[in-house]
Design goal:
Length: 350
């Protein structure tokens, strides 16, 4: 089966989250019911942000709800050849596919081993983090599933969470314990690794090595457009640790990280979970688990200055850029997927 044929054919948050999900269930698909241009859900901390990042401020675009009916949507990845979005519905143990042309929604894979983060490599192959099976897999062009990593030093991984692929084919993923702490988003199992690592798998040899080991709960991960910076989220607030984004200088050939520092903070009592960069190096990250007024997306420039926010009616876990021009932001928000056309583009994938 060739790539085009494959692409065409394939496809707990507690009381407060439950209340917000119930409220969101009343919302229809399409533009949100109180839509008015310019969309008041978009808040600017930098006046330049209005004109350069959102056509909404020319009165032409706003937040839309494009899919709903999930328990916890996560891990969006857009496949331009095929024009569809893949994302995980973790507690329902399935992956979903949303078509670009008509928003047709279908089950892509079930069961999914409680999949979480997804991305694709330069060949258009899906790369997935699986909580329940404690592994990272790649879906080959013929539909078979190859295991990229499931052990380190002879011990099972914790529960791989989010993943990115560098232009040289190396695969980088975070390994917190969220998927083995209970039976809702995975399966309660004993932890075998002594730390919560971030790993790199060599694209040629398949060798797995930890690149950093001092995160409380490493979570979202992404490269800058030039692949000279690596951003990693620590959602350790859930375990008595920090809630921030760190940034490192990175050598993608060796996996060496240097000059690590806090890039953005101030999320507590909430956390940011997933993120992606645009072509200018701005970091777009999800936001939730705090004041409902803060649910949504935040955007930071490469210096870590807040540029703006997108306010959404649900706690948000992850996001990606998609569409033929990579100028539509897709956001996984609890029970739904939201979308918004933006005045920038997602950084090119390898």
């Amino acid at each position: 089966m060739n790539r085009r044929a494959f692409l065409a054919a394939s496809a707990a948050t507690a009381t407060m989250a439950g209340a917000k999900a119930a409220a969101a269930d009343a919302l229809p698909l399409g533009p949100l019911p109180d839509m008015r241009y310019p969309d008041v859900r978009i808040e600017s901390a930098d006046k330049k942000f209005f004109g350069t990042h959102f056509p909404a401020f020319a009165g032409t675009a706003g937040v839309e709800r494009v899919a709903t009916g999930f328990r916890w949507a996560e891990g969006p990845a857009f496949f331009r050849e095929g024009n569809y979005l893949i994302f995980s519905d973790i507690p329902n143990n399935r992956m979903m596919r949303l078509l670009w042309d008509d928003n047709h929604l279908s089950v892509f894979r079930e069961p999914s081993n409680n999949s979480n983060g997804n991305t694709h490599d330069s060949q258009g192959r899906l790369v997935t983090c699986e909580h329940r099976a404690r592994r990272v897999t790649r879906t080959e062009l013929d539909g078979t599933i190859a295991v990229i990593a499931d052990k380190y030093n002879g011990k099972r991984l914790n529960s791989p969470n989010d993943v990115v692929v560098a232009s040289n084919g190396s695969i980088w993923f975070t390994d917190p314990t969220y998927g083995i702490g209970g039976n809702y988003e995975g399966l309660k199992q004993a932890q075998e690794q002594d730390k919560h690592y971030v790993f790199r798998v060599d694209g040629k040899t398949g060798e797995i090595k930890p690149i950093v080991d001092d995160f409380t709960q490493p979570n979202g991960i992404c490269f800058s457009p030039d692949e000279k910076k690596l951003y990693i989220i620590d959602t350790g607030l859930t375990d008595g640790g920090p809630s921030h984004i760190r940034v490192f200088d990175v050598d993608i050939e060796t996996g060496k990280l240097t000059n690590g520092k806090v890039f953005a903070e101030g999320f507590a009592p909430g956390i940011t979970d997933g993120m992606r960069c645009d072509i200018d190096g701005n970091v777009w990250c999800s936001m939730g688990w705090a004041d409902p007024k803060e649910d949504g997306v935040r955007c930071y420039n490469p210096s870590g200055d807040l540029l703006g926010k997108i306010h959404l009616p649900e706690t948000c876990a992850n996001l990606c850029f998609g569409g033929p021009l990579r100028n539509r932001l897709f956001v996984c928000g609890s029970t739904s997927v939201y979308a918004l056309y933006v005045g920038t583009q997602g950084a090119l994938k390898p």
